[in-house]
Amino acid sequence: MRFRDLTPQKAAERLCGPGLVLSTGAFRIHLWTDEPGLAHGLTQAYAHHEIELDPALYHVRVGVRCGRWRGPGRDRGVTAFINGEAVLGPFPRYLAYPMLESILNWCIAKQVLRYVVFHAGAVERGGDAMILTGPSGSGKSTLCAALSQTGWRLVSDELILLNPDEPKSGGPSLVGNPRPISLKNEAIGRIRDLAPQARFSDAYEGTIRGTISFLLPAEAAVARAAELARPRHIVFPTFKAGAKGELSELDRAQGFMRLIENSVNYVSTLRTGFEAVADLSEGCRFYQLNFGDMDSAFAAIESIVPSSAAKSAAP
């Protein structure tokens, strides 16, 4: 069953009762809440994702609970819980869904040691995966969203998972975890203009980062979440409005160090993490991409990974 098979009312009944299990590809999460409005955000953003109605076997329980909020009008607020422990909040009720997304990211960043986790996005086309990584505000999520709407498969955004257990002969692989892409402020309009067919959640105003809306991953990307992706290219994008597009290749030593800077659990994975990042660096080429618009970014990406049509036309 998929989330879209439940009406918001039925989803709210399940979430406010025993809960349900959401599958994001890499993870299955037991969700529950006593805030009925949260069902609306989930059924919007996770329409294509699989769910299960029996949460009995799943021990990681992520929930949102109503409580006190001292905002204007003293409306009720919401607090996020993991296995019964409050970890974030309280927040205004209308921000329940964005808060839940933050909590899911927190769970991956702080509790997952099976994979080496990076603050990055990843897309795949023609068997070649590309990692887009950098600090917040660099434009990586906007670029990842744009590529996911123009012929690339979304592997994951915000956090990517490098599997250190893959056979060395095949090279390191990324584990699919396609969740909604968080876009902020002007980036929302850029992606709407680029891809009018794209589906978004509601817009949430008044967050600490301004207005946020979530881009739904394509149904095909969700269906292919179990497919491993082999990274071949790692790009460090930097967006600056009006900037001329510039692409420069970095050596592996530079790339290795910048990868480590953008990992959220590298230190905790010890030797396993070092070897996994070293193997990843050995099999990839690194690039710095400065861009001020999507056209220049796309041109740079095409020079790195030509489309099938371009490859077939080459002499």
Describe this structure in words.
The chain starts with 7 loop residues before the first helix and ends with a helix. The radius of gyration is 20 Å and the shape is globular. It has helices spanning 8-16, 38-45, 96-111, 140-148, 186-194, 219-223, 252-261, 270-282, 294-304, 308-313; strands at residues 20-23, 28-33, 51-52, 61-67, 77-82, 85-92, 116-125, 128-133, 153-156, 159-163, 173-175, 181-184, 204-207, 210-215, 231-239, 246-250, 285-291. It has ten helices and 17 strands. Helix 1 (8-16) crosses helix 2 and helix 7 (252-261) packs across helix 8 (270-282). By secondary structure, the chain is α+β, with helices and mostly antiparallel strands. The model is unreliable at 309-315 (pLDDT under 50). The strands form three sheets. Strands 7, 8, 9, 10, 11, 15, 16 and 17 form an eight-stranded mixed beta sheet that branches. It has a six-stranded mixed beta sheet with strand order 3-1-2-4-5-6. Strands 12-14-13 form a three-stranded antiparallel beta sheet. Helix content is 30%, strand content 30%.
Quick overview of this protein structure:
The chain has 315 residues and is α+β, with helices and mostly antiparallel strands. It has ten helices and 17 strands. Helix 1 (8-16) packs across helix 2 (38-45) and helix 7 (252-261) packs across helix 8 (270-282).
